[in-house]
Amino acid sequence: MKVIRILFSIILVNLAISGYTQDGLNNPITKAMMKVYQQLLDEDPQDYETYYKRANEYYNHNQYAKALSDINNALKYMPEQNKDLRFESLCLRASIYEVTEDYENALNDLNKAYILDSGSYTLLYQKANAEFLLKRYNDAKMDYQRMLRINNRSTEALIGLSRIAVVEDNYAVANEFADNAVNINPHNSDMYIRRASIRKSMGNNNGAVEDLIIAISSNDNNSKALSELVEMSKLDYSAVINGLSNAIKQAPKVSSLYYIRGIIAKSHYKYTDALDDFNTLIHDNQQNYHGIYFEIAECLYALSRYNDGLNSINIAIELKPNYCKYFELKAKLLIALEQLPEALKCCDIAIENNSNYTPAISTKGLCYENMGNYTQAYSLYGEALLNEAHNPYNYLLRAHLLNAHLNNTSEAKILYERILDIDYDDNNAESLKGFAYLAINDRDSAINWIENILSNNNDTNGRINYIAACLYAQLGLNDKALNCMSNSLQKGYANYHQWVHDCNTEVNVAPIRDTKQFKELISKYSSIFN
């Protein structure tokens, strides 16, 4: 036993000296440590200290079930008088429960730990947060107030009290607490992100956007703030765009603000707005970043300005050669221009640089399908399926090919049925399950699927109504298709390529393109394309 413990100490010293950085439990040093832990436990199955140490190791490597088993054993065999280690063990088990969203058991352990050390600031914070998640707001408020008594400048406590004030509909108090937290640490971008969350929960979207833009302007946490801003745009696109526009007026030379506004506009299918910002970066700010030319090319492709898009993607490729993403987009532009041999070469370059890049594999399949080489297309769609078995579009590509060109309806049906088995939220239009239902002649389920989605989703950018228009068009329900088309265009869904040209799979509006109403709608909303 003593020899093994000495060996374990040597391993820890070697780990510290070597600075070994390989991640995960496959790290050779970590594997050696885990082996020693097991040897110690084989010699003494009640060695609570080893259980505790191994539980920490499992927890740090996200092995929560194993960590829970070990910490349970540690607490089982640990003497009651070992209060320090019992406190640490209870806190660790509470953390395991929290990360697995078992907040009730987490709080039970935190309360036990609180008896052992009622002055721990970190414990109080963990305890108050668990109480908040369990909607025990009075208990949470008391613990946040205890934190303030320990540290009267506790931003964590102030933010916690602000969140509780929101629940109590006391917005003035909520604002005061949140403002105080920001004033205590005005250079910490995380404070603005937290206040943005509180302002958002109060319905003050403009204030939330303002805080996120301030956070983005700092250097220490801008990726998190940007992610929050993108999510915010899904809730209130106008507030985000207006906030960014106001920031640009105040700082017209800050190129990142144009880029962010352009990216968000593009993600909401507002391609002409996005192009304005990207072109401003190039012309006014002399930006020569290859990624901007790629973004421009994607916008131009969506607007069916294929030659212009080709010019932009060529600049991007010149600035960053051999980037598979760029060659795949160039291939799509060339397919649209019916330059199939050149498109095929671009796909090959993309795949040479990344053999597992599924979009290039699928696009290469489209090249072959358009060239009439259905066997090669079938094989490539199969390869794409192996790479991304969770992507319903890959199934549609192969199934559509089987139905349309290879006269193999039985295998196509199997693929459509697999779409229905993908673990995808039925309330998400991107699952494309309605098209699979239609393909296997279950019209009622197809209609129920899309009607449920239209009823339960706030289609902020027109994408859901576009998919609905496609499905209704394929169902032959032209009036419903045109109504959804009108809704989609009104919301600004400006993918002209999809509206007018796209014929891949069944996700398109081809059956209504020759109608008078379709042409009138395209003309009526022409401003979003130009």
Mean pLDDT over all positions: 92
Listing every helix as H and every strand as E from the N terminus to the C terminus, the arrangement reads: HHHHHHHHHHHHHHHHHHHHHHHHHHHHHH
- Roughly how much helix do the residues carry, as a percent range? over 70%
**Structural class of the helix and strand makeup?**
mainly alpha
The general outline is: globular
Query: What's the gyration radius in Å?
Result: 29 Å
The largest β sheet comes out as: none
> What is the β-strand count?
0
| Tally of contiguous helical segments | 30
What tags apply to this protein structure?
530 residues; mainly alpha
Describe this structure in words.
The protein is mainly alpha-helical. Helices cover 75% and strands 0% of the residues. It contains 30 helices and no strands. Helix 3 (48-60) packs parallel to helix 5 and helix 12 (205-217) runs antiparallel to helix 13. The chain is globular and about 80 Å long. The relative contact order is 0.03.
Task: Give a short summary of the structure.
It is built from 30 helices and no strands.
Outline the fold blueprint.
Layout lengths: L1 H17 L9 H16 L4 H13 L3 H14 L5 H17 L3 H14 L4 H13 L3 H14 L4 H13 L3 H14 L4 H13 L3 H13 L4 H14 L1 H14 L4 H13 L3 H13 L6 H13 L3 H14 L4 H13 L3 H14 L4 H14 L2 H14 L4 H13 L4 H13 L11 H7 L3 H14 L6 H13 L2 H13 L5 H6 L14 H9 L6
Helix pairs in contact: 1-2, 2-3, 3-4, 3-5, 4-5, 5-6, 6-7, 7-8, 7-9, 8-9, 9-10, 9-11, 10-11, 11-12, 12-13, 12-14, 13-14, 14-15, 15-16, 16-17, 17-18, 17-19, 18-19, 19-20, 19-21, 20-21, 21-22, 22-23, 23-24, 24-25, 25-26, 26-27, 27-28, 28-30
